[in-house]
């Protein structure tokens, strides 16, 4: 079950949606209810082996950047 990222041009909200069906699902914006939303191309990370390190951003090896979120690492 893939998670897709969407953008609603009506209210300019970005959101994610877990899609359970293989056929085209009707996705509504959770903020304004619009059904005309655009599916975005998302980036993902993949490792080719168990010993390969996943790419990270920010200092300290935390992908959040430590300081720009509330993860408690900053």
Keywords:
74 residues, mainly beta
Give the secondary structure arrangement, pairings included.
Layout: E1 3-8, E2 13-18, E3 38-40
Antiparallel strand pairs: 1-2, 1-3
How would you concisely characterize the structure shown here?
This protein has 74 residues and is mainly β. The protein has strands at residues 3-8, 13-18, 38-40.
Instruction: Please compute the radius of gyration using only Cα atoms.
Output: 16 Å
Give the structural class: mainly beta
The count of DSSP E runs of length 2 or more, i.e. the number of strands, is: 3
Helix count equals 0
Assembly level: single chain
Strand order of the largest sheet: 2-1-3
Percentage of residues in helical conformation? under 10%
Cα distance, first to last residue? 33 Å
Order of helices and strands: EEE
Shape: globular
**Uncertain stretches:** none
Strand content: 15-25%
Mean of the pLDDT scores? 74
Largest sheet: 3 strands, antiparallel
Describe the structure.
The protein has strands spanning about 5-10, 15-20, 40. It is mainly β and about 70 residues long. It has a domain at about 1-45. It is globular, with a radius of gyration of 16 Å. It starts with a strand and ends in a 34-residue tail after the last strand. The mean pLDDT is about 75.
């Amino acid at each position: 079950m893939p998670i897709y990222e969407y953008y609603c041009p009506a209210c300019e909200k970005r959101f994610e949606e877990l899609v359970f069906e293989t056929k085209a699902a009707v996705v509504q914006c959770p903020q304004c209810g619009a059904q005309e939303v655009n599916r975005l191309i998302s980036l993902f990370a993949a490792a080719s082996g168990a010993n390969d390190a996943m790419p990270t951003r920010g200092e300290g090896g935390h992908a959040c950047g430590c300081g720009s979120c509330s993860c408690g690492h900053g």
